[in-house]
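Box 4.2: Ligand-aware structure prediction
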Amino acid sequence: MVPMSTQLPAPTSQRPAAGSLTFSAPRRGKPPAHLADLDMAGRRDWLTTLGDQAFRADQVSRHYFERLVTDPARMTDLPAANRKDLVATLLPPLLTPVRTLATDDGATVKQVHRLHDGAMVESVLMRYPGRVTMCISSQAGCGMNCPFCATGQAGLTRNLSTAEIVEQVVAAARYLRHGDLAGGSEGSGDTQDALRVSNVVFMGMGEALANYKAAVGAIHRLVDPPPLGLGMSARGVTMSTVGLVPAIDRLAGEGIPVTLALSLHAPDDELRDELVPINTRWKVDEALDAARRYFDTTGRRVSIEYALIRDINDHAWRADLLGEKLNARGLGWVHVNPIPLNPTPGSKWTASRPGVEQQFVERLRAHGIPTTVRDTRGSEIDGACGQLAATV
Ligand code: SAH
């Protein structure tokens, strides 16, 4: 059952009609401007506009991106007189924690945040031995309407700003630094590394490439070296998309070698038109061609995401067709991540039988395609792929 009226009294979006797509987000009050929205030149300009000295931008950036500090009392290099006001202007609180849910003995944590206008977003932190992966949201809701995804079924509420995206990672980094996330500690090597967000995947709520400018700004803040940003490795960042072809090409041209994940879910247009409605705009072959171009430009091996849905897309012939289509575009440029479908409210679909899943994987491997079933975490807390719907 779809939980009705359990959302906070935020304006909620309508459940979209089957197959409909929403590209432009409803206009709502803009979130407050934040230091993390801007590159360093923009931050310095902002300080100058405020009548302050430009180098204060570097100081506050250091507190925010290096020390993860937002408390003006701890920014003793700023003049005491206007420290509080300055920080209130540059680092307004954007996310209010609503609840934190943990599972896997604390190794998987879902954080639900309320934004300034009452819209809700979720992010998920997953601790593995030696690495921490964070799954973040780029929109409140999503306009891509995939029928097996809870977020898609809730419709698009609005785009997030760059800083609202970045803040999810900074909030998690702070959480880690305070040692709150258990699990994965044995044999994980360096504690410092184990306590850092090493990977960020744009696989939470939303289609990030439909919120292009904010998403690319966020990528910069993640990978740019401190004090410009958090200084993560670009290869640790994965952009996941339904296949917005022009945006994939544009991303390839940004010169930031993040990993691209293409949510394919079917190798044939007839089925993909239904499972991933964007396919009515850009067909399977066009999406795969764009993925291949992405590899050519960036040198980054592309991931093909494939949620295995019992008796819908898990047939051996579809594994063969997928293998053939990938090989037709060359060798060594791609790998496939089958994901057992996670249950979502109101959907009649369920995950493939284990034997069928195994066969699907083996067929792909027989075509020479590296294939690894995704370990899905967090389904007990509705925190797994496709389950983020931000109900309270
Ligand atoms: N809009 C982006 C990010 C969405 S979520 C995209 O579509 O790629 C990340 C992945 O989870 C996508 O591959 C998406 O198709 C998949 N997913 C969505 N619902 C799912 C479900 N119920 N079970 C398993 N995977 C799901």
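In the box above, the bound molecule is S-adenosyl-L-homocysteine. The longest helix spans residues 162-177.
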